[in-house]
Design goal:
The complex is a heterodimer.
Chain A (H helix, E strand, L loop, with lengths): L3 E10 L3 H14 L3 E7 L6 E11 L10 E6 L2 H7 L3 E10 L12 E4 L1 H4 L7 H16 L5 H11 L4 H19 L18 E4 H11 L4 E4 L6 H8 L2 H4 L2 E4 L3 H14 L3 E5 L1 H17 L3 E7 L16 H6 L8 E3 L4 H18 L2 E7 H5 L1 E4 L46 E3 L13 H19 L5 E5 L5 E6 L3 H13 L5 E5 L1 E3 L3 H7 L5 E6 L5 H10 L5 E4 L8 H11 L1
Parallel strand pairs in A: 1-4, 4-5, 5-6, 8-9, 8-10, 10-11, 11-13, 12-13, 17-18, 17-20, 20-21
Antiparallel strand pairs in A: 1-3, 2-3, 7-14, 12-19, 16-18
Chain B lengths: L19 H15 L6 E5 L14 E4 L5 H11 L4 E7 H7 L1 H10 L3 E7 L34 H7 L4 E6 L3 H13 L3 E7 L11 H7 E3 L11 H9 L5 E8 L5 H4 L17 H8 L1
Parallel strand pairs in B: 1-2, 1-3, 3-4, 4-6, 5-6, 7-8
Antiparallel strand pairs in B: 5-8
Helix pairs in contact in B: 1-6, 3-4, 5-8
The chains are: A alpha/beta, B alpha/beta.
Bound molecules: thiamine diphosphate (TPP) and magnesium ion.
Thiamine diphosphate (TPP) binds next to helix 3 of chain B.
């Protein structure tokens, strides 16, 4: 048996699209499905059109996909916009108070708020949201109990009456759904032996950062970065994380640099435009050798661009931003579990090599929820890499060393004074214009990258390791590329994916080895010029035979990648 | 009392006769009298002639970038409130490039001292107008003279509710030392602007010019530094007479008290390892 069902839930902002998505996805997951949810929304608070997708399967899912099997429409626009995407087993469930026209050729079920939960108008939203969740489960012949338990969990603190309304509407919706005929049943799926977790990329990174010992976070709101800032801020009280909303991104990065200089594990973040303001601070962290994690959650640009859409257009920017050659590391997770591991790793790398470490994410990565197993979030190491023991008296913050790493001490912890300077400086941290010192110090800083690259890798592969066709990707493109490769393989075309999550300093030897045997190299990424392809060429001499690019602001889908491949093959 | 030799730094690159030397000496004396050891103090600066200040001292130092001393100092102080944090800034650094951070620092009321070496000019870049350059003063970039009036930064600070506002002058070193001591011991954000003659690029606002105008504000009969309206009027006074001394002071909660993360002590002394099972439960 193979189940693969895509549910699209659409409406105007403020209508409760999210209030349906989460309980529905969770109930299906607890029922034993592998679930993946993704979001698409506009830069406005009310109105407009937004939709979420809940994809479910009896096998692990790594990507969203095209095609809609169940369309859950809270308004007319949803039907009009998405009816063309309906698959042969398409079915529409709609709010009968809002939607007046559904295509006659598609089976459908209208839910009237009044029949789900008679009474006051304020209850109409509850009725439709809970009723729709129930109707989907009924239609798919899945038990209702996990949904009822979820409603109790989510609304328990709002009082017994609210829970009761939800339960009533969900039950009514369930009955209405169960009375329909639908060609797919989940009755054969049973709850998993161990609980699974539904988690988004940014939530997983918050988990990794907290597990990795984060103590200080400063930032300024900007979509899509804000969801990570929120995820940490909301839990800060329990873990003693100091959260400061800065007056601007310049302050955000300088606050974090100050906190890190004195010894707190620190992170700041933003999205493209805010990162423009941070670039001078980036150079400052590089020059003063201050550990710092910087999240850049990308969105299409230049300038304000498409605020709520997705992009991988800032790779070149974070590789080269700031003055001269300033050392930094760049990491880009592909799945929530990888986001968890890399958030913790970024904190360790920053401390070990005393430099800024980027985590590159985007709207698709930020919001998309994967089903994971708890074991995929293992214990992480916290390595502060501080110089221990008593010092020698005169402390050189920037002592010349073979590997470029100078022993780091913290101000106020001993007899040593810690002198840090953005000017070129002597080993003791004081400003200098001695040009010989300049060369030695610059070389020392850059040597750290040569040392660091030895512990980097971050290569994930899938498919046939000997296939002549290789699709290379980075960051959030992993899921769609991985599924495209799976489908190629299933269709008899040998193919493999090579996903890179540790991009700078690029472990060129390991990347070259992973590409061994490739006859046709395809690089797939969400920007217009193939920024990873340029990096590959620069660092390995290899380059793509074909580029699969997308920069319309909507995420990759496996189908899009396959279509593009068939055009070039 | 600690000897001022304890605070001796590297050789200075300031011009002979620079007003900054007076500030440096008064600051060292203040530290000595307050018995603050070099290890217990962090001096943060931006870029400018004034920003070289911490190098000429013995202390923990973070010499950052132009205009950004205040957020670095704030972050440092929040992570480790055991350190005394002083920002040494210039009129261009603090009032120009870093203006937004001054507004935020005053609102935050972090327990930190901000010293503005006000020479009414951009000295390091060789003499352009700063936000405090007098109207009509000619510079290389303003050959017709600066077209607008100077920023009344202390009045701005009073209007924002800054918890301690004062002006000192390089022409009154003893008085300046006392102001440094008060600023450092004040609980909350202390803004100390110091009249600092620039002997190379400012031929208008000289030692003589400041000496003739600076008067002790404490000696005015209606001295009332806890009265916001009085303080505002005094802070606006500039021209024939320039008040020096504490202009405004009042008590407000400091940011360090409001951050719950600091209740368990300085962040830098806390154990950042957290139990995984608690974290997992928290996210699912
Ligand atoms: C971002 C940036 N812009 C410009 C400069 C050049 N710059 C260095 S110091 C300075 C002005 C300094 O004026 P002030 O703060 O009054 O210090 P002073 O030299 O007068 O003590 C300028 C414009 C710089 N270093 N960084
Ligand atoms: Mg100046």
């Amino acid at each position: 048996m193979s189940i693969d069902l895509n549910i699209l839930i659409g409406g105007a902002a403020g209508q409760g699209v999210h209030s349906i998505t989460l309980p529905l996805a969770k109930a299906l997951m607890r029922q034993g499905c592998w679930v993946l949810t993704s979001q698409s929304y506009q830069s406005r608070i009310r109105g407009g059109h937004l939709f979420n997708q809940v994809r479910l399967s009896d096998r692990r899912l790594v990507s969203s996909r095209e095609g809609v099997d169940l369309l859950l429409a809270l308004n007319q626009e949803t039907v009009t916009m998405h009816q063309g995407e309906l698959s042969p087993r398409g079915f529409i469930i709609y709010d009968a108070a809002e939607v007046k026209e559904v295509p006659a050729s598609v089976p459908s079920l209208g839910l009237s708020p009044e029949s789900l939960l008679p009474g006051a108008k304020e209850r109409a939203e509850i009725a439709v949201n809970a009723g729709a969740c129930g109707a989907v489960l009924g239609l798919l012949q899945a038990p209702l109990d996990s949904m009822l338990a979820l409603l109790q969990e989510s609304f328990g603190d709002k009082g017994a009456e609210v829970v009761e309304w939800n339960v009533q509407a969900a039950t009514k919706g369930y009955e209405a759904g169960a009375a329909q005929k639908y060609g797919l049943s989940l009755s054969g799926i049973s709850p998993p032996p161990e609980p699974r977790l539904l988690i988004s990329g940014h939530e997983a990174m918050a988990l990794g950062a907290l597990g990795g010992g984060l103590q200080f976070i400063s930032g300024y709101p900007m979509t899509p970065w804000t969801s990570l800032f929120n995820a940490i801020a909301q839990r800060s009280g329990r873990y003693n994380v100091l959260v400061e909303q800065a007056e601007d991104e310049i302050a955000a990065i300088n606050l974090a640099i100050g906190a890190s200089y004195t010894g707190a594990r620190s992170l700041t973040g933003t999205s493209g435009g805010g990162f423009c303001l941070m670039t001078e601070g980036l150079g400052l962290a590089s020059m003063t050798e201050t550990p710092l994690v910087i999240v850049n959650s990308m969105r299409p640009g230049p300038s304000t661009g498409l605020p709520t859409r997705t992009s991988q257009g800032d790779l070149a920017f974070v590789l080269y931003a700031s003055q001269d050659d300033s050392p930094r590391a760049v990491l880009a997770p592909g799945t929530p579990a990888q986001g968890y591991a890399l958030a913790a790793k970024a904190l360790n790398l920053a401390d070990r090599y005393q430099l800024p470490v980027f985590l590159l994410t985007d709207q698709y990565f930020a919001d998309t929820q994967f089903t994971h197993l708890p074991g995929e979030f293992p214990e992480v190491e916290v390595d502060r890499a501080l110089a221990g023991g008593p010092g020698s008296g005169t402390y050189e913050r920037y002592a010349y060393t073979e590997n470029g790493i100078s022993p780091r001490r913290l101000p106020g912890f001993g007899p040593e004074l810690v002198v840090a300077d953005s000017d070129e400086h002597t080993p003791d941290g004081h400003l200098t214009e001695d040009l010989q010192v300049r060369i030695k110090m610059h070389d020392k800083r850059l040597r750290k990258l040569k040392t660091m690259v030895q512990e980097l890798g971050g290569i994930t592969t899938s498919g046939d390791p000997a296939a002549p066709l290789t699709l290379v990707c980075w960051g959030s493109s992993q899921g769609p590329v991985q599924e495209a490769v799976e489908r190629l393989q299933a269709g008899g075309t040998p193919a493999r994916m090579v996903h890179l999550s540790e991009l700078w300093p690029l472990p060129a030897g390991a990347v070259t080895a992973a590409l061994e045997g490739t006859k046709k190299l395809v690089v797939a990424e969400m920007n217009a010029n193939g920024q990873l392809n340029r990096l590959l060429r620069q660092e390995t001499g290899l380059q793509a035979d074909h580029l699969v690019l997308k920069y319309d602001g909507a995420p990759f889908t496996p189908e899009y990648i396959l279509r593009e491949l068939s055009n070039v093959a | 009392m600690l000897p001022i030799e304890l605070y001796a730094g590297i050789e200075s690159a300031w011009c002979p006769g620079c007003g900054n030397f007076v500030l440096l000496k008064a600051f060292k004396q203040a530290l000595g009298e307050l018995e603050i050891r070099p290890q217990g103090i962090l001096v943060v600066s931006g870029i400018g002639q004034s920003a070289k200040f911490p190098h000429y001292l013995q202390c923990n130092t973070f010499n950052g970038i132009h205009g950004r001393a205040l957020p670095v100092g704030t972050g440092a102080r929040l992570a480790n409130p055991d350190l005394k944090v002083v920002c040494a800034t210039g009129d261009g650094d603090c009032y120009g490039e870093g203006g937004n951070h001054l507004l935020a620092a005053i609102r935050r009321n972090v327990d930190m001292t901000v010293v503005v070496h006000n020479n009414q000019v951009y000295a390091l870049t060789k003499g352009q107008a700063s936000p405090t350059t007098g109207q009509g003063v000619k510079t290389t970039l303003q050959p017709q003279g600066v077209p607008y009036p100077p920023l009344a930064a202390l009045a701005l600070a009073v209007s924002l509710g800054c918890s301690w506002v004062a002006r000192g002058s390089a022409t009154a070193p003893e008085h300046l030392k006392e102001l440094y001591k008060q600023a450092i011991t004040h609980r909350g954000l202390a803004l100390l602007e110091v009249l600092q003659p620039c002997v190379t690029f400012n031929r208008v606002n000289t030692y003589q010019w400041y000496k003739e105008r600076a008067y002790r504000v404490t000696e005015t009969p209606d001295y009332d530094p806890e009265n916001e309206l009085w303080a505002y009027r005094k802070a606006k006074e500039w021209g024939e007479r320039i008040p020096i001394g504490v202009i405004y002071r009042h008590s407000r909660p400091i940011l360090e008290e409001t951050h719950p993360a600091l209740a368990a002590g300085p962040l830098v002394r806390q154990q950042p390892k957290r139990p995984l099972n608690q974290l997992l439960a928290d996210f699912f």
